[in-house]
TrEMBL record:
GO BP annotations listed: phospholipid biosynthetic process
EC numbers, comma separated: 1.-.-.-
Keywords: FAD, Flavoprotein, Lipid biosynthesis, Lipid metabolism, Oxidoreductase, Phospholipid biosynthesis, Phospholipid metabolism
NCBIfam families, A to Z: GG-red-SF (TIGR02032)
Superkingdom of this protein's organism: Archaea
Keyword GTP-binding listed: no
GO molecular function, one term: oxidoreductase activity, acting on the CH-CH group of donors, NAD or NADP as acceptor
Digeranylgeranylglycerophospholipid reductase catalytic domain segment(s): 181-267
InterPro entries with a match to the protein in the record: FAD/NAD-bd_sf, Geranylgeranyl_Rdtase_fam, Geranylgeranyl_reductase, GGR_cat
Record protein name field: NAD(P)/FAD-dependent oxidoreductase
Amino acid sequence: MTPEDSYDIIVVGAGPAGSTAAMYAAENDTSVLLIEKKKDIGVPLQCGGFLPHYPVLQELVPNAELPVTLEEIPSNCIHATASYQRFIAPNGLSKGFDVDADAIDRRRFDKHLAKRAAKAGADLLVGTNVTEVDGTKLFMDGAFGEFEVEGKVIIGADGPNSIVGKASNMIRDPDPMGTGTAFEYELSGVDIDREAVEMYFGKDFVPGGYAWIISQGGDTANIGVGIREALFEEHLCARDYLERFMYKHPIASKKLEGASITSVVAGLVPVGGAPKVTASHNTLIAGDAAGHIIATNGGGISTAMVGGKLAGETAAEFLKGKCRLQEYETRWRQQMGLEIKTAVYVRKLMDKLMRSDRLMTTAIKMITPEQMKAIQCGQLPDPVKKTLMKLNVGLS
């Protein structure tokens, strides 16, 4: 595929945020180019793919206008459906709450979203890496050759280390605790609760983070650890912690005994919140590039897509003279900024507690299932805030 020399809008990154941005921009009668560095969209996988159902997402971000593609998910993009979320404390205490959610096949889901963007009229250029950003001119190299393409608006949906964001100085403040590593295995031959998503805590297995088991249907599952490098023990890496969890955790190892690893998944997770600026006179960033993640659970599919929708719509309206491009900043913060900011605050309160098995167990014991659900949704009920602050004071 040979792109045109210029477009109204160029979107970099064909993940959930980028494809959603491209779809909504193209539906608003603008010329759109969607660029993806991967030769096969969705591969390699970089996410566990846990996605609550539409009504739950409405509770998660009640002020957001959710994209239609979150309501209409094809059945072939769903591995399995869960009805319960369970927390396992370091001492084995179990507590949880009801939740309706799917384990998404991100390979198929990401392709589905890219196809929706293309069907709306966007040009799609895969296997192409953006090597330089000069204003609104992009220099690219990849499977189809080298190109220089200029846009009127650039949307960066190219991940935590966004080249678009860096070019416009839309970057987060340095914070070693603000970026996590998600290291995961896809397994076959497991014997787990297919109806539940499980989250495990304990400093010996995931210091300052958590491990998870998500059924993908039948005897398959996604397991992983979400952890930050600043908390690694000397000479250990994320893989070491996942191996320790899989083979030595007193509860999880029994469920995973004899399983075969069929795929390795890894990616960065920006859990430090959004950069101070996510919009300029000609550039927007969305998704992971903009910190559109709920830091308490690492979930970012839905929030990334909300950000993408707003980026695509705002860029199209800007080109029609209906608004300033910087209005995107106000729009996404009004729709989900509070939840993202609150989740970062809660994550910071939990950081110290998760280094102490005793205090983490106490926290899980004291917090009710309803309060747990609120925390997962980026909310902080007053009783929970008082409990966490009291435990932190005791730790100090």
